[in-house]
């Protein structure tokens, strides 16, 4: 018979174990992951705030700046919204408040990951075009903003 509870846990617990006890034992196993995600969250928030500040204030408008700002904002939102929700899901693996909240959390996480990946792909395309075809027509900052909007919309 299939069980979502790993075999090692089933053998270590008595028959009448509560869901809260199972949840607490899994949280104990998740502590290193929780600490790691918390460190990534702090570093990500500080780093992306710095990137957004520097690229907004210090750099003149360009295609590269537009891409980096878009990536910085998406990653900043991911670090301030997505990572705390991920930590919460690691702390409540069996007693998550609702199925809809769990699905929404996973959807938000994938949204941020895919948006970042598409923006990095756009940066690679723009860099390739600038290096490979330096004398041809280049992508304008307006087109970059449209591309960033599409990356987020997809």
UniProtKB/TrEMBL annotation:
Span of domain G-protein coupled receptors family 1 profile: 47-154
A GO term for molecular function: G protein-coupled receptor activity
Segments crossing the lipid bilayer: 34-55, 67-88, 108-124
Keywords for the protein's UniProt record, in alphabetical order: G-protein coupled receptor, Membrane, Receptor, Transducer, Transmembrane, Transmembrane helix
InterPro entries (UniProt xref): GPCR_Rhodpsn, GPCR_Rhodpsn_7TM
Main location: membrane
Superkingdom to which the source organism belongs: Eukaryota
Cell location: Membrane
Membrane topology per record: Multi-pass membrane protein
Family matches, as Pfam families: 7tm_1
Protein name stated in the entry: G-protein coupled receptors family 1 profile domain-containing protein
GO cellular component: membrane
CDD domains with a match to the protein in the record: 7tm_classA_rhodopsin-like (cd00637)
């Amino acid at each position: 018979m299939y069980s979502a509870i790993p075999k090692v846990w089933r053998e270590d617990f008595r028959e009448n174990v509560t869901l809260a006890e199972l949840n607490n034992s899994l949280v104990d196993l998740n502590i290193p992951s929780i600490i790691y995600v918390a460190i990534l969250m702090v570093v990500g928030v500080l780093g992306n705030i710095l990137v957004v500040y520097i690229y907004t204030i210090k750099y003149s408008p360009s295609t590269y700046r537009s891409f980096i700002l878009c990536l910085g904002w998406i990653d900043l939102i991911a670090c301030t919204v997505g990572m705390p929700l991920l930590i919460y899901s690691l702390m409540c693996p069996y007693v998550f408040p609702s199925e809809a909240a769990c699905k929404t959390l996973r959807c938000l996480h994938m949204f941020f990951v895919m948006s970042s990946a598409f923006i990095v792909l756009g940066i690679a395309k723009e860099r390739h075009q600038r290096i490979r075809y330096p004398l041809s027509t280049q992508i304008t900052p307006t087109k970059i903003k449209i591309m960033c909007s599409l990356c987020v919309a997809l």
